[in-house]
Design goal:
The complex is a heterodimer of chains A (about 260) and B (about 280). Chain A has about 260 residues and is of the alpha/beta class. Chain A contains eight helices and ten strands. In chain A, a hairpin with a 6-residue loop joins strand 9 and strand 10. In chain A, helix 2 crosses helix 3. Classes of the chains: A alpha/beta (about 260), B mainly alpha (about 280). Chains A and B meet through strand 6 and helix 2 of A and helix 8 and helix 9 of B.
Amino acid sequence: MSPTPAIEFSNVSLRFIDAKGNATVALRNFSMSVARGEFVAIVGPTGCGKSTTLNMATGLLKPTVGEVRVMGQQVTEIDPRIGFVFQADAVFPWRTVLQNVAAGPQFRGASRKLAIEQAADWVQRVGLGKFGNHYPHQLSGGMRKRVALAQTFINKPEILLMDEPFSALDMQTRTLMQDELLQLWSGTGGSVVFVTHDLEEAIALADRVFVLSARPGTLKRVYDIDLPRPRVMSEVRYNEHFIELSRRIWADLREEAVLA
Amino acid sequence: MTDHTLPAVLSDEALARESETARARIQRRKNMIIVLRIVVLAIVLGGWEIAARAKWIDPFFYSQPSAIWGQLVEWMRDGTAQGSLWRQVAVTLEETVLGFLIGSVAGILCGIVLGRNKLLADVFSLYIQIANSIPRVVLGSIFVIALGLGMASKVALAVVMVFFVVFGNAFQGVREADKYMIANAQILGASPSQLTIFVVIPSAMSWILASLHVSFGFALVGAVVGEFLGAKEGIGLLISTAQGAFNASGVFAAMIVLAVVALLASYLLTAMEKRLLKWRPVDF
């Protein structure tokens, strides 16, 4: 492992002030270190500040106390090495699949032609080769997620942040997308922080699982997931060690879910 | 084992027959609607004509379709008291289009600027609401006093009529831009100006286009009312002259000319809208 972690939260707390001026604590004394190339999942009950952690890593939110470092540097603005996949559909409905995927390089100064060329390659890689000129409304939810993945991966992010990216998909599509994600990620050497409320998803994908407590969220425990890679989503869930792990973590999580 | 042969009613020929009859039924319904529309028109115009000829209503006040048609033909053939009919249409249309263009461009610009700036929006929203609640047609009198009987006063009134509608929609459209989409663009690397051009404006576009449709009608109202209040030519003056001469047919004939202009403009705007919003689901 390289000496500087990809992401480092040291003793981070966040006080959140809403539009009416009420202050609440969203996250309390949270510390986490994500190594380069590591896949980390964060699970916790609803509203515990899981997504908040990601927003602090992008710089869209600033910690009230503590420090967030990305690649060893304190976060001040959006780091170009970061990629983000949202829960909601965040693709641009007025752009075709190709134009959507080309958006990143285009924003970053590539010529239109070059951006479209690169996009065509990524559209192919996520299996949407025939749909390059379709608009998002003509695609299924799973296909739109593939567009979002290609849109993010085309920028070659060294850090990939994912905020419950597959939670709106049906079970079968979700399993396929998880495999797709692992395949795209393997060999990039990038780090992933994957936020989810689905414990099995977290265990199946990650190297380590961070369990957060109910609001105000704080780190409850970290689990090492020593399942061998490469993993196949449809099989890993029947692995005995997987079942054992999910039983242990679930016991932890249940207490918090009851509190939330 | 399950039987994989289809029952006879589901065979290709049977399905083709079904589609055939279904298509014929849809076509018949379309034709019937056209016929019914013509019938409704005939009843209304015919009833009006008969009522006027039978003196159930006084044609001097309420005119009659044949007289209105006669007036239109006369205008087209011999021109109006203030010059050729086409000249009147051209003048009113020019005022309308100018007012529409200036008003909508200004509305879109202000809407985007205020929509992107929370402080400006909070400060100005009150005044815009107040300005919006005043019946703006009244301003026409001011414009006639200040800008004279020429084209400027009509264009100014049309601009005012259009501006607030377009501004309101552009502002709303910008504010409604999806926050995840904006965050996504920012993380993909968009600069603030790229964000405005590639995300905020396209997402406000459906709101803006909806308002353009309505506001062309408003621009026309502004131009005609402006002419009505004082002008040297235009359809509004045609109406006010006809009113002064107790020529009811003239008022109706001018109304028909206006309707044709408005319908043509609406058709053009719809075509433009379809082109610009081709990314939307068709049943929108």
